[in-house]
Design brief:
This is Sigma-E processing peptidase SpoIIGA. With about 325 residues, the protein is an alpha+beta fold. The protein has helices at about 5-25, 35-50, 60-75, 80-110, 135-165, 215-220, 225-230; strands spanning about 120, 125-130, 165-175, 175-185, 190, 195-205, 245-250, 255-265, 265-270, 280, 285-290, 300. Strands 3, 4, 5, 6, 7, 8, 9, 10, 11 and 12 form a ten-stranded mixed beta sheet that branches. Strands 1-2 form a two-stranded antiparallel ribbon. The longest helix is centred in the first third of the chain and has 29 residues, at about 80-110.
């Protein structure tokens, strides 16, 4: 078998560099490029040296761990024992995920006449797997593994970021309670203009049983004031919450002024990850005719004022 040491060196240089960059991204650390290149060169020299020298210790478990430690140390520095252990753990996780993906993908696309193709039985009864891959196929499967790992880790990170902003919302009206999950939006600055009461947005479908028939669907395309104008005192079944309804002016994304249908609850209680509940009576519920979350992970947008400790049990200075 002919081995091109220069090809081994540059292949490992690229692979180690990508793995170190992925590790940095997972750990949210931004090392200097020179440190990453230096560590990748060390890994490439280590991989190529097996064809140039014969030092058995280098390829023992202890030798591999020492080289890994050296690569991580060169890239990220020391930073304390716990920091080093976390970096090492992330480095091995990325290695196992990407290079393991290479092996898995290569076997997935490989064809054989029998289920035992590529397998052989050793003298001691073990099973040996034959793994042969051309450079082009290796590069393709490695890049695909990196893409899959990066996409999965990014999705998980974004999901964790969203979950950190999720609150349990309990709305109380006339002795009844409705509980939904809400996303805390720190950029939400929607207030009722006259009383400066904060407005929390909620899907109208939560209140489908309480609103007049058809309002949930009509809110998607009709103006809120036209719906309110339909309410008459001579209706055989007058809307029980008509005295709670509010028309809340706001500006749409394009800057045009609009009216949002809302109502005044008795109270809203927020709970976040076992913390002390925060209750506010100075709040309005704005109704959205659509869906706030594509994956239904939340059904309300929480106003930041309601998530502050001084909002607890706050009474309005004037009726909203």
């Amino acid at each position: 078998m002919v081995v091109y040491v220069d090809l081994v060196f540059f292949t490992n240089l690229a692979v180690d560099g990508i793995v170190l960059l992925l590790t940095a991204k997972v750990r949210r650390i931004y090392p200097a490029k020179s440190r990453v290149i230096g560590a990748a060169v060390l890994g490439a020299i280590y991989a190529a040296s097996m064809f140039l020298t014969s030092v058995p210790f280098l390829y023992s478990f202890a030798g591999k761990v020492l080289v890994s430690l050296a690569m991580v140390f060169l890239t990220f520095g020391y930073g304390g024992p716990m920091q080093l252990l976390r970096n090492i753990g992330a480095f091995y996780t990325v290695n196992f995920a990407t290079l393991g993906g290479v092996i898995g993908l290569s076997y997935l696309i490989r064809s054989s006449d029998t289920p035992w193709g590529g397998m052989s039985v050793t003298q001691d009864g073990g099973i040996a797997l034959q793994w042969q891959m051309q450079l082009g196929l290796f590069v393709t499967t490695f890049l695909l593994s990196v893409w899959l790992f990066h996409g999965t880790s990014e999705t998980r990170r974004k999901r964790q970021n969203v979950e950190a902003l999720i609150w349990d919302v309990e709305v109380r009206v006339e002795g009844r309670t409705w509980t939904v999950r809400g996303l805390l939006d720190t950029g939400n600055r929607l207030y009722e203009p006259l009383t400066r009461t904060p407005v929390m947005i909620m899907e109208a479908s939560v209140w489908k049983e309480q609103l007049p028939a058809g309002w949930c669907d009509r809110l998607k395309g009709e103006s809120a004031d036209s719906l309110v104008a339909e309410l008459g005192t001579d209706d055989p079944e007058p809307f029980a919450w008509s005295h709670r309804l509010r028309l809340i002016p706001y500006r749409a994304v394009n800057g045009s002024p609009k009216l949002m249908l809302g109502f005044k609850p008795d109270s809203v209680t927020l709970t976040h990850q076992g913390q002390t509940p925060l209750t506010s009576v100075r709040v309005l519920i704005g109704l959205d005719g659509g869906t706030l979350s594509s994956d239904a992970s939340y059904r309300a947008i929480v106003h930041p004022d309601l998530a502050q400790a001084d909002a607890k049990a706050s009474a309005p200075s004037q009726p909203a």
